[in-house]
Amino acid sequence: MIDWDRIVEEDGPAVWRICWRLLCNRADAEEAFQEAFIAAVELSRRETLATPRAILQHLATARSIDKLRSRQRRRKRHEPVDHERLNEEASADVTPPQNAEAGELSDALLKALATLPGKQAECFTLHAIEGWAYQEIADRLGLSIDHVGVLIHRARGKLKKSLAHYGHDGHNSAVEPPAAGATSGSSPSGK
Question: What residue spans carry the region label Disordered (predicted)?
Answer without folding.
Answer: 69-100, 165-191
